[in-house]
Amino acid sequence: MKKLQSNAKEFFIDILVFALASAVYSVALNCFLARNNILNGGFTGIATILNYLFEIPIGITIFIMNAPLLVISFRKLGAKFVFRTFLVIAISSALIDLGVFLPIYKNDLLLSSIFGGVLSGFSLGIIFLRNATTGGVDIIAKLIKLRHPHITIGKSIFLLDAFVIALGGIVYGNLESMLYAVVGIFVSVQVLDYIIYGISHGSMILIVSEHNDKIRNMIINDLNRGVTVLKAQGGYSGEDKNVLLCACYDNQTHKLIKKIKSADENAFFIVTQSKQILGNGFRNSI
Predict the structure, then answer these.
(1) What is the CATH number of domain 201-274?
(2) Confidence class for position 68, pLDDT limits 50, 70, 90
(3) CA distance 123 to 105
(4) Crossing angle (nearest 10°) for helices 42-54 and 58-77
(5) Among 87, 69, 95, 92, which residue's Cα sits nearest to residue 130?
(6) E strands along the chain, which residues?
(7) pTM of the model as a whole
(8) pLDDT-wise least confident of 36-40, 72-76, 105-109
(9) Domain residue extents for the chain
């Protein structure tokens, strides 16, 4: 009974999040992008082009194009994911077509592309975090990530959108629309990647010092971060050494560096940016 109630609650939250995100996406499309001839890429971009040419409703077109893709992705992505994505597509398609009554912002096309990109990236990111997509190239990007985990979803979508942007430039016969589309999609990708990966951004620090015990205790006790001791050998001296490895969030990096210097002014350390940090003490998944 409790499990049933928990599933019902989760389903209700999904519907609510999908509806809110789809409403934001509809605003991005209808107020800033589609009706200013600025493509948003993917199936939405193709539907926008067909709407421009034949006045076919964008939402209905998106829904029809996604139907076969959902069937194809059923085995790879699972029934739960496909069902969630179907809900998003159904809700967003309806809200996109209802959103044609929203006012259009026409004062500045650059601002339109930027704000349209921010809103669409935000809505897509929220939907991705609920283990669903808006369909189209989002599903294709998800499939690519399963096969090539090092490729971010946002970058996959950006590459897949290139063809649609080129097609839009030909159809509109307007280079400016094509350039504004690039701006909008670039902004959308940045926001999308930040929503999905931004929380897990951080640094990896390798430390070589004569005072490893002091630095290790400081990291554990003062910063409440874990540290790993790596066995190493000096390439020049041939002496055995210990190298400390610590992962931390970006907002902890500066504090950690100050602590290292206070413990050992002669410490040698390397700081590298980490796109994702997953596991104990950090996020468990993306």
Answers:
(1) 3.30.70.120
(2) confident
(3) 19
(4) 150
(5) 87
(6) 202-208, 228-233, 240-249, 268-274
(7) 0.72
(8) 72-76
(9) 2-199, 201-274
